[in-house]
């Protein structure tokens, strides 16, 4: 086995586009998510990352798939976007968002690092909200800030290992998550599109291309990469 992509949440949106990108480049692709992607030629392992005990259910199966891997690109893409505020957020909701968006990534790091060789990478799909805040997305904003912190801490902890890491922060991307969040409201989507210098939403493929670049560019180790078409500052 040569190079392997392990990705979470590869069944749709940015995750699916990324799985396709790496598969087209000859990578073996392993996806972890609840739903199987509509993509042939990859390995799917059913996993509910919102359950803190998920490693005990599918960790061994994942490691078996990685025997002999030359290098592994690990992309933490799975995530959940909830509507909540600092005034009303429920502890259980906050806990679930942090588990899926942050803690599961840490668990997966610990599982895979023993088999990740020099030339491997750990990439986090964060958000422009990983470095700023907006109203009504308290848990999501908090978790995306935490993702960047996890990446930066991990970069220091892996000093000298030959494994590089980065956080990729997409702007408004035309995904099912975004459309679900705004109720597929055309006016809201048009407003978000207007916040970029190009007057449009990003395509998932553009973020997949950015992840591909980061996976193959150790110079960006520890970096936060904004991919947002030049988003309006406010």
TrEMBL record:
A Pfam family it matches: adh_short
Record keywords, A-Z: Oxidoreductase
Highest taxon above the source species: Bacteria
SUPFAM superfamilies: NAD(P)-binding Rossmann-fold domains
MF (Gene Ontology): oxidoreductase activity, acting on the CH-OH group of donors, NAD or NADP as acceptor
Family per record: Belongs to the short-chain dehydrogenases/reductases (SDR) family.
Name under which the protein is recorded: Short-chain dehydrogenase
Organism of provenance: Oceanicoccus sagamiensis
């Amino acid at each position: 086995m040569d190079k392997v992509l392990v990705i979470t949440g590869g069944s749709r949106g940015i995750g699916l586009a990324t799985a396709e990108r790496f598969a087209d480049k000859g990578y073996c692709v392993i996806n972890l998510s609840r739903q199987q992607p509509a993509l042939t030629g990859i390995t799917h392992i059913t996993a509910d990352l919102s359950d803190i005990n998920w490693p005990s259910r599918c960790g061994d199966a994942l490691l078996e798939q990685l025997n002999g891997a030359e290098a592994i690109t690990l992309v933490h893409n799975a995530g959940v976007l909830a509507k909540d505020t600092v005034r009303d957020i429920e502890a259980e909701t906050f806990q679930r968002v942090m588990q899926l968006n942050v803690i599961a990534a840490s668990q997966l790091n610990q599982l895979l690092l023993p088999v990740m060789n020099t030339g491997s990478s750990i990439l986090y799909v964060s958000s422009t909200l990983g470095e700023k805040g907006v109203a009504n997305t308290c848990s999501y904003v908090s978790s995306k800030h935490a993702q960047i912190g996890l990446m930066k801490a991990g970069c220091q902890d892996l000093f000298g290992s030959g494994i590089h890491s980065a956080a990729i922060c997409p702007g408004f991307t035309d995904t099912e998550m975004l459309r679900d969040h705004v109720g597929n409201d055309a006016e809201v989507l048009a407003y978000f599109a207007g916040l970029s210098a190009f007057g449009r939403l990003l395509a998932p493929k553009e973020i997949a291309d950015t992840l591909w670049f980061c996976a193959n560019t150790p110079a960006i180790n520890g970096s936060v990469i904004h991919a947002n078409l030049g988003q309006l500052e406010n």
